[in-house]
Amino acid sequence: MTILQQPDALSLSKNLKEFRISSSDQVSFILRHGDIEILSQRYDPSSDGDITINLRDIIHARLSYQLLESGQVYQQSSLVSDFTAVIDDTTTFTFRVIRAGVDRLSDSATNFLTQNFLTWQPNIKPVTYYSPEFLTYYSVVSSTVKLRAFFTDDSGSVTSHTDYTVAELTAGIAYTLPLQYSVVAGWLNHQLPAYYDVWVENPTGQRLTYVQRYYAEDMRTEQEQWILFENSLGGLDTFRAYGTTAFSGEHTHNLAEIDEVSQEYRVDTERKFQKNTGHLNQDERKWLLDFFPSQAKYLYTGNYLRQIVVTESNVSYNDRVLPSNYTFTFKYADARPLLNLPRTDVPADVLNITVPEVGSFTVPPRLAEFSRLPLSEGALFPIQNPYSEEWGTTTAEAFANFVGQLLSSFAGSGGGIGHQHNNIDLLNLLSYIQEYLLVNGQKIKAGYADVAGDIEGDKYIHKDRSDFTGYLLKLLGGAEVGETIDSLIAGKGILLKDGRVQADTLEARFALIVQEVIFNRLSAMESDYSFSESGTIESVELLEDGTYNLPLRKRWDNDFTAIAENDVVYGIVNNLASGGGDYYTSWLRVLHVDTSANTINAIMYPDSEVPGGKNYPPEPLMILSHRGNPVNEERQSYWYLSVREHCFCMLDGVTKPILEESNYAIIIGELKQLSLFDNLPINYRHSYIHCRGAVIQDLLRIDYQGIPVRSENNRGKWNAEESVNNPYQSTQDVYDAVYHYGCKWMCLITGTTEEPQYASTGWAMIEGNPDFTIDIDSSNGWHFDADKFETTLKITGKLYNQDVTSHILDADIEWTRDTGNVTEDNAWAVSHAEAGKSLPLTVNDLGPNYMNMTGCKFIARVLLRDGQNNHETTDYVPF
Description:
Mean pLDDT: 85
Helix content: under 10%
Distance between the termini: 116 Å
Shape: extended
Structural class: mainly beta
Largest sheet: 7 strands, antiparallel
Strand content: 35-45%
Number of helices: 8
């Protein structure tokens, strides 16, 4: 045997070389994926002594891309893997394969993977702030992913750049890098670059890959959608389809006609979306050819990814025509005929309702006030179709005929109006002659045979004594035992009808086998529920040595018990057989397991070694559950859910029926009174999580209202120099707090140099005076000569003890006047509606009867908007 060709040590799955073997004899071949044997075959050589083994499809199907919606770099553990080939049990060859493929690859996989990201997307790519972007890279050698962000001025010239290390990569591992613009901005302390470059370099600083550039761009159209797909190199690409979207909903209405009435018993719904990619340049239209063969496609909708499938596509272009575009039709992979619409519209604050003009109408008098008419067949009644505004008439005769026909249709042939016989047709056929009951002239054959079936007895069903038969009894119409009422809620008796058996209690002595169980939507459980190996005792045999031989029931033909030797097992039963209602527990230790016979041999624990101080022997039909093992440490764990204890527990290190405190490895729910918790401020009526160890990626503390809890670092009075020399911080766990103008402020953005004040994006006021106030000032003071009155009233506003006048909109200021003359004051307010923060006044603004009245008051109502809440206040000045 000679191996002529074999896969490279590092290969692409779609470019994997075949095994070519030269041999004159049959060759055995085994392929393993890790410890799993996925192929075992024997191959006969051809007439030329050649054997070719192609593993491309088998290995490609074993690899997969893992998509995580995460802002962190993560490993692709299933994208690349090692495989081992064993040939004739003598030759072993191990090789590594990555899920990727290149058309007519002329280079080695090692060189290609070192120099390229796993994508065919253009090197220069426009992105929006939130569009998801990922780069996948297989690190052939230990390397570093670098990012350089460039910042520009208004003219587009680069003013500065910032370098950032995205990740340190370990050789032999594939990584996915999240490069969404918002993620990159977070890495850069919320700075917004014009564009950023990404590349991979080795430990000496030598660049290994090409430079992938992303630059910021706005949404191109309102129809833009972001579509992700797994490309042919094993990575994940995103393209922005901003062309038109056409929706079509196809409905197949399946109808059934029952008693000449049609109804829709099922409506098959298929909702499709036809999407145009928008204009594509030369690089984009070549790259997107990778989208259509992909078998994993996603649409970024709302704020999550939803898998789609493409049903039709129109992929063509002319190499002399630019730009070009593609069109494809898709639907959601998990589409169902349901809706989930957001309710975000806010009703208007003021709802204007106009009452239409209505013509005159009259109200008739009481019926007692109408004149009386004798009832006859020709008496008229008013009648109206419920969907028509037209009134009509009908006669008493027509009404009587209609009601009679309606009642007759209800009763059918079963006894007439008001009374019904379901068996009226049979009664009409019955007759009696010479002690025989006839049906349509034929004698009824009724009788029975004795139990043995060899003596024919009476041929009638008696009403005065018991009947029996040794033959099959067929009750074609069903059967009723006792007084019966057909109802699942208020029924009584025993009913066998229409394939149903209805009774108060159904007892099965051995098993109940059904295809479907229909029960209440709410299912409840009492006592404890164990998650462990188990078995049901079929019979109990007490042996002479004091041990029990316990055959276990087989649930199917090849079912064998999973209970092992030395297992601590227990079961709980109710002594229903003796008419009692008490529960008792049996504790056993397994001495021997006969797997072929599905039987165990066990011994009871003494009373002193079991909970409660009393042990009971096992019973038939008792379910045994594995609890622990005093010998095998691998079998000392046990999960159970307890309704009585209000918790979900994992026990570990269990060696006997009575538990130790150390056995409680995990408790989820109400804690137990363990000495471990004695010095802790624990409320045993609340729920907790207790475990010996925890590996946590994200830990978020919240209060009882669900608000994240962050710690405060109080840095005293705010200082502008300190904001530059020692920047204020705001992280997920801690924030800096300062005092400014008598108020306490929380830092929102790390490194902000803004002064804490209203409308600051970097600070939020958390303590202090939250009231919005205004002050009205007069440009000429407050002492005037009535004949020479002239001044300008000016408004200034304060919030958090600081001036916020510049944030008040003129449109949010309303001036009114109060002189006592409502008509004149309303007219004045309308003429000064646009005054804003400054209100010029002359003697004419004081009113025509100013000297003869009590005075004049100018009132200002001011609104301050902050985008979420509206602050409103009022002030006035008298003259």
